[in-house]
Amino acid sequence: MQRMLSFFRRYAATLFFPIALIIYDFAAYLTTDLIQPGIIHVVRDFNADVSLAPASVSLYLAGGMALQWLLGPLSDRIGRRPVLITGALIFTLACTATLFTTSMEQFLVARFVQGTSICFIATVGYVTIQEAFGQTKGIKLMAIITSIVLIAPIIGPLSGAALMHFMHWKALFGIIAFLGFLGWLGLLLTMPETVQRGVVPLSVSGVLRDFRNVFRNRVFQSGAAVITLSYIPMMTWVAVSPVILIDAGGMTTAEFAWAQVPIFGAVIVANMVVARFVKDPTEPRFIWRAIPIQLFGLLLLIAGNLLWPHVWLWSVTGTSLYAFGIGLIFPTLFRFTLFSNDLPKGTVSASLNITILSGMALAVEGARWLWFNGGRIPFHLLAVVAGIAVVFALAGLLRRVRQHNASLPATEK
To answer: Where is the Major facilitator superfamily (MFS) profile domain (predicted)?
Structure first.
């Protein structure tokens, strides 16, 4: 009987824990993607200024940054399991609270609290996946998780546009709250614990020392720069595209939703290629082969908008090609940044997410300013500059990872 229980726990950790994490992550994505086609309706429903529409995304990102400083070190000390389960419950309650908002200010506060799901998922959930499985299996499992979760940006806008013909936008958050509850229940029943509790005492000085060591680590610095810059072209498009395509471009919500399909579909295809066909996603030659795809996408993005400024096809096509290129290597970049050091992984992940989300919040606000004050070309130039900077930062990351691996004992390589 004991052996059967032990087998079930291992099987649950291998299969059902990733599924529970996917449900939680999927629901977190839907809070942005399901409502994006109707965000203009939300603003108008509360009689607010349309310029506040992108703030729904930037405040969500700010919420994702708010607890990073605490959750990483906390999960290193008391365990990953209690922290992630608590996060899933907070997310479910925040989505439920959105049903009772009566002003744009209340809606944005709820969005901020919903954004804390990023802290729990990225800082604790993804680290647990990487710790529970080996390097290659962990990278491929993360690629599979990302592929499934990124269905949300595809079906989210389409479903949101369709559902808003039959129900109020608040009802969409009720659906998301139910998914959040399912994710919480699944984590409660199946999530394994990957750290030994109580080995490291929880103290302010210890937490500060860990963060200081992480931010001084050269591999971390390079990895955080690469990942943050890599996100900018996609996240600025996600945040500002409702204003660009619906408010300024005159698209319907359904047309807007279909316009997003190629971008997120490209990331899904890229992750499935990694999971199914790439033997070693950490091979430098494979990583460098993805860079020309990204750069060609950015070239098409800016050239198309210069030559045919009235056709939004170039914005979507260029961003989609870039998304495919970065999707090929993103799980590997995360793994390199997290594990090419001897630092506490919860603190490393928290530091990485603080850097990413700070950069994203600033980039979204900068992109919004560029659009309203400069128009299409300055807005897209931000993505081009970030994409070119990725190449130089990636070269530094791969060099430092190679140096770290060379310093390891033969038994650890």
So the answer is: 17-401
